[in-house]
Write a structure and sequence with these properties.
The complex is a heterodimer of chains A (323) and B (327). Chain A is of the alpha+beta class and 323 residues long. Chain A has seven helices and 14 strands. Among the domains of chain A are: 2-76, RNA polymerase II/Efflux pump adaptor protein, barrel-sandwich hybrid domain (OB fold (Dihydrolipoamide Acetyltransferase, E2P)); 172-322, Chloramphenicol Acetyltransferase (2-Layer Sandwich), CATH 3.30.559.10. The longest helix of chain A is centred in the middle third of the chain and has 17 residues, at 200-216. Chain B has 327 residues and is α/β, with parallel strands linked by helices. Chain B has helices at residues 2-33, 48-55, 71-76, 81-88, 123-135, 154-165, 185-188, 193-198, 212-227, 258-267, 270-280, 286-309; strands at 63-65, 142-147, 170-176, 179-180, 183-184, 203-208, 233-238. Chain B starts with a helix and ends in an 18-residue tail after the last helix. Chain B is globular, with a radius of gyration of 19 Å. In chain B, helix 1 crosses helix 2 (48-55) and helix 5 packs parallel to helix 6. In chain B, the strands form two sheets. In chain B, strands 1-2-3-7-6 form a five-stranded parallel β-sheet, with helices on both faces. A two-stranded antiparallel sheet of chain B has the order 4-5. Chain B has one domain (2-314): Rossmann fold (3-Layer(aba) Sandwich), CATH 3.40.50. The chains are: A alpha+beta (323), B alpha/beta (327). Chains A and B meet through strand 5 of A and loops of B.
Chain lengths: 323, 327
């Protein structure tokens, strides 16, 4: 039997935020399994199990701030008592404590003007869209924004508003065509001059990331490069990485999805799945075909147009990207 | 026969000291993670053969200077568990009456001039200690422990120059664990580590820091030569830290592969490998080693329990040891 504690991981750290359990109460655990994620003031870290057994007596839940050093579960030999019994009611408090400090006024809800926009993490937005949940319903209750995945639990519990059907925002499409010769010359030049092989996917990701940033002023752009035969890769700010340097992969939520069709028979994808903005790049003779699908949840029309125009300009003349 | 007997005692003492360091660190790690210990701390686990191999070649009167990853040096130089844990927890009975903590623990009684939170911060102190021994006509030797990252500190080059010019009885012991905090050392250190000392005409050696006997043999020779006035010397000890840079550095894959950690744990553990050698040579059997392990673990656990209950220093001690009256 071993206690699972909320670890102190740095100086002057009083609490750790239990981001989420990676194991459920009662699960079998092996030493080294990731038990939960904890967020400190520096970063989110994974805490591994120090013993074999079953996760039991779980007493803290996702999203909770837990004082460091507190036991939040026990790894025991059997799966009995997966969840901790509620703490016994406190025995009579010492009289002195009855003279309570004045109750602090509850902090006013964030007075940040959101201009009707719903602030939510990309992951929460994506999952909500997949499950057909309406974040607006949560906003209507006055729950403080921005919403995270943990808030979806509340939303799932809420009865769907009477007569309301969840309407997905309409998919919008923007298409463009540009000459391939500029990019082809650029790739040949990289090869001849620097012996640097640039793949089309890497180039597309880099140019698209740059164009997306310019159009939407997004500080961090994560491109999900779709791979129909394998695992999608997630590239963080690929426009900040030199094309000759190794890609920097990330497990952050994607900003948009990129399908590189240039080496296939496909020229364009219009799948109407608007969970994430989706970009496909196909080739047609001497041209690249750019197809971009998005919804008003992601950006406004002007931004979408600016993005696709910027990307086409970069592909037609890569110097636009480099300068 | 007498020699064999003496050797056996030396070997067992080295084994015991390495296990003592490992047990100390296991307890300290838990104390920290469970929020019972203030400050920050850095684990020595994995590097035990370095501290033990060297300190077993020293007399009580010889001096060492230690680092922010210093518990191993302190134990190896002869410190007591109770006073060490008291120090880590800020208690009155600690070596520095609780004022030093993990990164500033010093045990003058055993010649440990102190850990130092500044990377490379003790190089001047060690060299000064060697100068003082020479001036006073004592045959004390000083060993200066520091890490690979500390070779980037300018102070090292000033003191090596001085020590070489004045033939001081000091040994610079560079514990190269392959990582300077979160960066592979070969990404930050150009050229060879020993080459840095050789540039000053200092004899420099490279040794497997996981092999306690190899470290001890080399240290015996160099300490003896230091006493004869042939110092200074420089040793690079190739070793590995099992934990992160500090106790909170628990997700390390972004800079250090898990396979590499496993390789060192499985095939290069100084304690496991020394135990294998001791049993293969027929010096002791496994049961005896197991008994030693159990005894030491119990010792460490009871020292922790003692220190947790021990008293904090009185508030009147706040300026004690801060000012010294000069006559």
């Amino acid at each position: 039997m071993a206690d699972v504690i909320m670890p102190a991981l740095g100086m002057a750290q009083d609490t750790g935020k239990l981001v989420q359990w990676m194991k459920a109460p009662g699960d079998a655990i092996s030493t080294g399994d990731v038990l939960f994620e904890v967020e400190t003031d520096k970063s989110v870290m994974e805490v591994e199990a120090q013993a074999d057994g079953f996760l039991t007596q779980v007493s803290a839940s996702d999203g909770e701030d837990v004082p460091v050093g507190q036991v939040i579960a026990v790894i025991s030999a059997t799966a009995e008592n997966p969840v901790a019994a509620p703490a016994p009611p406190p025995v009579a408090q010492a009289v002195t404590e009855v003279v309570a400090a004045p109750t602090p006024t509850a902090p006013a809800p964030d007075a940040v003007t959101t201009g009707g926009r719903i602030l939510a993490s990309p992951k929460a937005r994506r999952l909500a869209a997949q499950e057909g949940l309406d974040l607006g319903q949560l906003a209507a209750t006055g729950a403080p924004m921005p919403y995270h995945v943990s808030d979806l639990a509340t939303l799932r519990e809420m009865p769907a508003a009477a007569g309301q059907t969840v309407v997905m925002a309409a998919t919008k499409q923007i298409m463009a065509r540009c000459q391939r010769s500029g990019s082809r010359d650029f790739m040949e030049w990289m090869q001849a001059d620097g012996a640097i092989t640039v793949t089309t996917s890497a180039m597309f990701a880099s140019f698209a990331s740059g164009a997306f940033r310019a159009a939407t002023e997004t500080p961090t752009v994560v491109v999900q490069v779709a791979d129909p035969d394998g695992t999608d890769i997630f590239l963080r700010n690929p426009d900040f990485t030199r094309l000759s340097a190794p890609v920097s992969e990330t497990d952050e939520d994607a900003t948009f999805v990129l399908h590189d069709l240039s080496d296939s028979f496909l020229t364009s994808l219009r799948l109407g799945d608007t969970a994430l903005p989706t970009l496909s790049l196909g080739s047609d003779g001497d041209s690249y075909l750019i197809t971009f699908e998005f919804s008003s949840e992601h950006m406004d029309d002007a931004q979408g147009i600016a993005f696709v125009s910027g990307l086409a300009r970069r592909l037609a003349d890569p110097l636009h990207h480099l300068v | 026969m007498t020699d064999a007997k003496t050797n056996t005692e030396d070997y067992l003492r080295m084994y015991r000291q390495m296990v003592r360091i490992r047990s100390f660190e296991d307890q300290a790690n838990q104390l920290y993670l469970s929020a019972k210990m203030p400050g920050l701390t850095h684990m020595y686990s994995g590097e035990e053969a370095v501290a033990v191999g060297i300190c077993e070649a020293l007399k009580v009167t010889d001096k060492i200077t230690s680092t922010h990853r210093g518990h191993g040096h302190c134990v190896a130089k002869g410190a007591d568990f109770k006073q060490m844990f008291c120090e880590l927890l800020g208690k009155e009975e600690g070596y520095c009456r609780g004022k030093g903590g993990s990164m500033h623990i010093a045990d003058q009684s055993n010649g440990n001039l102190g850990a130092n939170a500044i990377v490379g911060g003790s190089m001047g102190i060690a060299t000064g200690s060697a100068l003082s021994a020479k001036r006073l006509g004592r045959d004390d030797v000083t060993v200066c422990f520091f890490g690979d990252g500390a070779t980037a500190q300018g102070l090292l080059y000033e003191v090596m120059n001085m020590a070489a010019l004045w033939s001081l009885p000091v040994i610079y012991a560079c514990e190269n664990n392959g990582y300077s905090e979160y960066t592979r050392t070969d990404e930050i250190a150009a050229g060879s580590i020993v080459g840095r000392a050789e540039a000053f005409g200092i004899e420099a050696f490279k040794v497997d820091g996981q092999d306690v006997l190899a470290v001890n043999d080399l240290a015996q020779t160099l300490v003896a030569r230091c006493r004869k006035g042939e110092g200074p010397f420089f040793i690079e000890l190739e070793t590995y830290r099992y934990h992160g840079h500090h106790v909170g550095d628990i997700n390390r894959e972004y800079y250090r592969p898990k396979d590499e950690e496993k390789e060192w744990h499985t095939n290069r553990d100084p304690i496991t490998n020394f135990a294998k050698w001791l049993t293969a040579e027929g010096i002791v059997d496994q049961a005896e080693l197991d008994t030693i392990q159990t005894e030491i673990k119990t010792d460490a656990a009871s020292a922790v329990a003692y220190a947790l209950d021990a008293k904090y220093p009185d508030v009147s001690e706040v300026d004690m040891h801060v000012f010294a009256e000069t006559p």
